[in-house]
Structures are given as C-alpha cells and as structure tokens.
Amino acid sequence: MLLNPALDSARPLMVVGLPRCGTRFIANAFNQHPAVHLNGEIPHVTMKAAIKFVTATDEFFTGRDRVLTNRDAAYVPVDSAWTAHRRELLYAMWASLPKGVPPALPNHAVDWYGHKTPSHDQFWEFYRDFFGGSGPKYVFCMRGFADNYISRDAIGAKPIAQVAKQYRTAVNRYADMKEALGDDVSLFILEDLREGGVDYLREVLFDRLGIPVSADVLTRIDPNRPANSSAQKGVEKRSLNDAEQAFIAKHPDLVEALDAVRSAQRI
Fold this sequence. Notes:
Largest sheet: 5 strands, parallel
Oligomer: single chain
CATH architecture: 3-Layer(aba) Sandwich
Distance between the termini: 45 Å
Structural class: alpha/beta
Low-confidence stretches: none
Radius of gyration: 21 Å
Strand content: 5-15%
Order of helices and strands: EHEHEEHEHEHHEHHHH
Number of domains: 1
C-alpha cells in the first residue's frame, strides 16, 4: 500500500551498536547483496516520535471490539486495516526518516530491509514486541574502549567520562539483547575485521544470521576499504594523553569490557 511491493515480505534487518565502530562500513557491505536494502541513519528524536505514534495507534486498535456495518449488515473489525498495514507504515517511516538522501528502493523483491543507526539498539524491546516472531535481525558493532573514544574524540566527541558511560550502556545492552534474541543478534568487532577479512565478514553478516550469500557478492566487499574513518576526515590517529590514560586506569572495567562483550556479559 505505502511502499514498493518489493518490500512486502522483507524481514527487518538493522545495523546498530556504538558510533565509530564500523556501522557505515557494515551497511555498505550489506547493500552489495541484492536481497538486502539498508537505509542510512535515522535521528533518534525522530524515531522516538515515530515509535510514540505507532505505539499509540497500536493501543487504540488492538483488542477493540467495535465493528463497522455495511449495507448488507456484514461486520468488519475496525482494526483490520491497521493490522494489515502496520508493518508497511513502519517500513515507510524507515524509508522517509533517514538523514540525507537514502538509497533508492530496489525494483526487485528483497528479503531483508532496514537501516543502520548507532545506538538504535535502544529500541530493541519495541521492535521485539511490534514484529513478534518475525522480528529484526541485528548486527551489533563494537570495538575496544580506547580506540572508540579516540575515534569519537577526533570528530568532537563528548568528555571521556560521558563516552565511558555510553560504552558501558552498549556493553550491557548487547548482553540483554543476546540473552533475549539469541541468534538474531550477531556481534561485529572492528578489531577482528583486520585479521579475519572477508571470511570474518561472511561469518558475521551472513552465516550467523542465516542470510545466503554468493561468492560474487563477497568479492564486491573490500574489508580494507574504510567508511567514514578519521583518516578520511583528515584527522590523524593519536594516542591517549596522560589524563585519559589515568581515567582508564581508574576504571579497569573499560579495559575488560571487550572480553565481556565477546561473552555477552554485563559489566
């Protein structure tokens, strides 16, 4: 009704996790696959408003026993149109809300449709309840704390204490998602890409999530080609200064956090 029919049977797929951990690279890699279509980032304030609208509409229609009567005295539940098209409406929002110009919708059927937005994992419980048994698959992007902080600082990030708070939130949220959603969540660690290359990407993006992928698609994904890196922004990578090193030394959980993520443990 609202979107290209190519999305009628598509299952939701999202790239989430911390900023500066490879979300754009992963989205670009997914979009090399003809059965996958991912949009760009959706501002959180916009998505919160969209979710508020969808939730209120859901609550209005769900469970209502009012009926409409036509001339033949046949009864039609008033929530039938909403029930049939609620997924299409959310997909239309995903197509319309991203910052910038999203990729053009495909003119062929796709099996996976979604977007990449760091920290959008904050909405995972809404999506679990909204989609039910056909809920989203996620790639959750992470990296070590020091590298994440330096990369975020390079583009004008917040103070290290605030970045640390957000980092801990991401570690714990991944653990919660993994416990609740199991194999529907795949973990991508940026440091592991350097060693694993294309084989690592095939495992993380496709094998773990049950998305068939051909050798031809894999040849179009270059693991050595960064997307939105600090170097591409003209910023040279630096080392931690004394104050930053002292902060991390006082918070050993940040040093151990990546191991916690690998084992899906909270910190």
